[in-house]
């Protein structure tokens, strides 16, 4: 049996947070230990111009039986001031930062958020977007150029299929779109300017659902210069705690099991195994396919909550919410580490 297969089968049973480096840190009087690989996610806004049938952002939130409508600091200056304060406090942790949402490129706040990350010398900067706002202009400059000028490292673009009709059917854009034609402009431009794009494809029965589909997807986008692609399995959820019934039904009907795909990948000589990573609630396998680095990831939110419950003093992830709270959770009133007080 290959090492990949052994780890794949054992998965989270083998994960022990105390084998990882933990950094003691005080958040507003609370003594915690922060996982060294911890990332700070800045959830810019819940607005999105698409309405993906599987929307991970909404599901993640609703998994705790909460409605997906976040409170926010309405005043822009108060918001930037609060983010500045939180980034300064976290500076000793030297965190990587991911920008997410909703659709962050549709938020007029984005350019100033990027400037704040530049001000605090954040070591690794990533944004996850559906790509549709990258050519939108703020202060005479495209969002793409704002990212480049503020030294972003990674640009994750979600695209569920290379076939535009299928992609549109799954992502249900209400306004705007990121076409393959747009990607053919974005990818080489970003690469030339030192911003590394990565396409992110959620595996769905309605969309890419087998090894052949993955191969076609890779080859299609390799032609326009993409050298990094991630295929994700829909996250596993605790069904009893869900409240978005429509999205949940879609996910249940459309789930593709990566274990089946990995069995096929093991036999396919085009996928050359490179490395695998075991995280606290996710497992990733990385392959080379021609000149493209291909990742495949499965994640389980139930495992995430169990893991956190077992070790309440460990901080696994940090999320800065639109209401100004810094949390160890994607839910803005759960596991609050630095609470925003508007006084
Ligand atoms: S693009 Fe992202 S945030 Fe927007 S609906 Fe789709 S999954 Fe949700």
The CATH first-level class comes to Alpha Beta
The coarse overall form would be globular
Q: Percent helix among the residues? A: 25-40%
The total number of structural domains is 1
Quantity of strands, as a count: 17
Mean pLDDT: 91
Poorly predicted ranges: none
The succession of helices and strands, N to C, reads: HEEEHHEHEEEHEHHEHEHHEEEHEEEE
Beta content: 15-25%
- List the ions, cofactors and other small molecules found in this model: iron/sulfur cluster
Q: How many helical stretches?
A: 11
Q: What does the largest sheet look like?
A: 12 strands, mixed
Radius of gyration: 20 Å
Strand order of the largest sheet: 11-12-13-10-9-8-5-4-3-15-16-17
**CATH superfamily membership:** Aldolase class I
- CATH architecture label name: Alpha-Beta Barrel
* End-to-end gap: 60 Å
Backbone structural class: alpha/beta
| CATH fold descriptor | TIM Barrel
Descriptive account of the structure:
This protein has a single domain (about 5-340), classed as TIM Barrel (Alpha-Beta Barrel). Helix 8 links the parallel strand 9 (about 195-200) and strand 10. The chain has eleven helices and 17 strands. A twelve-stranded mixed sheet has the order 11-12-13-10-9-8-5-4-3-15-16-17. It is of the alpha/beta class. Iron/sulfur cluster binds near residues 51, 102 and 103. Iron/sulfur cluster binds near residues 50, 52, 55, 103 and 171.
């Amino acid at each position: 049996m290959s090492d990949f297969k052994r780890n794949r089968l054992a998965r989270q049973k083998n994960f022990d947070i105390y084998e990882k480096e933990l950094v003691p840190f005080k958040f507003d009087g609370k003594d915690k230990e922060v996982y060294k690989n911890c990332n700070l996610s800045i959830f810019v806004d819940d607005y999105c111009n698409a309405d993906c049938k599987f929307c991970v952002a909404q599901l993640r939130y609703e998994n705790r039986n909460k409605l997906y409508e976040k409170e926010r600091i309405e005043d822009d200056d108060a918001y930037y001031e609060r983010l500045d304060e939180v980034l300064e406090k976290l500076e000793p942790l030297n965190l990587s930062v991911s920008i997410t949402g909703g659709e962050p490129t549709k938020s007029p706040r984005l350019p100033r958020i990027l400037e704040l990350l530049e001000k605090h010398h954040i070591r690794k900067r990533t944004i996850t977007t559906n790509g549709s706002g990258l050519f939108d202009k703020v202060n005479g400059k495209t969002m793409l150029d704002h990212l480049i000028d503020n030294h972003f490292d990674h640009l994750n673009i979600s695209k569920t299929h290379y076939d535009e009709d299928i992609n549109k059917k799954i992502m249900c854009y209400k306004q705007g779109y990121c076409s393959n034609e747009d990607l053919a402009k974005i990818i080489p431009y970003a690469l030339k300017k030192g911003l590394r794009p990565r396409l992110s494809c959620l595996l769905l029965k309605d969309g890419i659902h087998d090894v052949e589909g993955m191969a076609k997807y890779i080859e299609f986008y390799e032609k326009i210069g993409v050298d990094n692609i991630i295929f994700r399995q829909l996250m596993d959820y605790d069904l009893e705690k869900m409240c978005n019934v429509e999205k949940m039904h879609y996910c249940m009907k459309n789930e593709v099991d990566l274990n089946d795909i990995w069995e096929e990948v093991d036999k396919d000589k085009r996928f050359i195994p490179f490395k695998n990573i075991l995280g606290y609630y996710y497992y990733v396998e990385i392959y080379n396919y021609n000149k493209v680095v291909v990742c495949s990831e499965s994640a389980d939110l139930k495992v995430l909550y169990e893991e956190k419950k077992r070790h309440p003093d460990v901080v696994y992830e940090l999320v800065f919410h639109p209401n100004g709270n810094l949390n160890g959770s994607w839910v803005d009133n759960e596991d609050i580490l630095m609470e925003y007080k508007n006084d």
